[in-house]
Write a structure and sequence with these properties.
The structure is a single chain. This protein is mostly helical. The protein folds into 2 domains: 88 residues; 138 residues. It contains 9 helices and 2 strands. Strands 1-2 form a two-stranded antiparallel sheet. 26% of the residues are buried.
Length: 241
């Protein structure tokens, strides 16, 4: 959906208010409501964008029902305040964008990062979370020989499992092209996380990460952790016992 032209919307809502004021001054016997209905056409397109779920109350019964325009106008005035004072409201109240709660990240990530995070060591917290995800993946895969990107390359390989090389498969993996695409995506995603996020945090002397950037990076590892946690371990037939 394209963004709304706020200036245009404000102008149309104000035009409705002007029409409403003129309508109130007309003798009822001469009033046909036509001007009000014309102005409301624009209002009916604008208000649902300002108040999601709002529906126009106008029906054929409105024609000649003078008092009902008052409640309608009150919604227009509310919308005008929100549109004209949007910057001020967002500054003092914040917008309605969802907030990322670190405590809702995958437990492997947050538990690995918690102590360092709470002391303000955000970059080290990301590195600790990465180590935790790596260790938990090793636990699921059953090896300490492989690590990080190599570990994920083997765990989510398209190859059939071998005696010493089980595979991780998401529950919806049916062996088709979509499943293969998902596995390839996980392998590439894991390589990116460890190469671009974990390695610089662990090996390079860098400035401290801003908190919001570190939280984004924790979220990236949380996605990886959930894939591993939700996957089934598939072993070779002769090693199932």
């Amino acid at each position: 959906m394209a963004p709304m032209d706020r200036a245009w919307a404000v102008a149309k809502l104000r035009a409705f208010c002007v029409e409403h004021n003129e309508w109130q001054e007309k003798p009822f016997a001469q009033d046909s409501n036509d001007g009000m209905f014309h102005a409301s056409v624009f209002v009916d397109r604008i208000l649902p964008r300002v108040f999601p779920g709002w529906k126009s109350p106008i029906t054929h019964e409105w024609r000649g029902a003078h008092g009902r325009w008052e409640a309608y106008r009150s919604e227009v005035v509310r919308a005008l305040v929100l549109l004209e004072q949007a910057t001020e409201i967002a500054t003092h109240v914040g917008d309605e964008a969802p907030v990322l709660d670190a405590g809702q990240l995958h437990p492997w990530v947050w538990e690995g990062a918690r102590s360092l995070w709470q002391s303000g060591h955000y970059r080290e917290a990301v590195a600790a979370a990465a180590r935790q995800v790596n260790a938990e993946t090793q636990n699921r895969y059953g090896t300490r020989e492989l690590t990080e990107a190599t570990l994920f390359t083997q765990a989510f390989s398209d190859d059939v499992p071998k005696t010493d090389r089980p595979r991780l498969r998401l529950l919806e993996d049916d062996g088709g092209k979509s499943a293969a695409s998902v596995r390839r995506g996980i392998r590439n995603y894991a390589e990116g996380c460890f190469a671009a996020l974990r390695n610089p945090a662990a090996h390079d002397v860098l400035e401290e990460l801003p908190e919001h950037e570190a939280l984004e990076q924790l979220a990236a590892f949380s996605v990886l952790a959930r894939w591993v946690d939700c996957a089934q371990v598939i072993t070779a037939p002769d090693s199932a016992a």
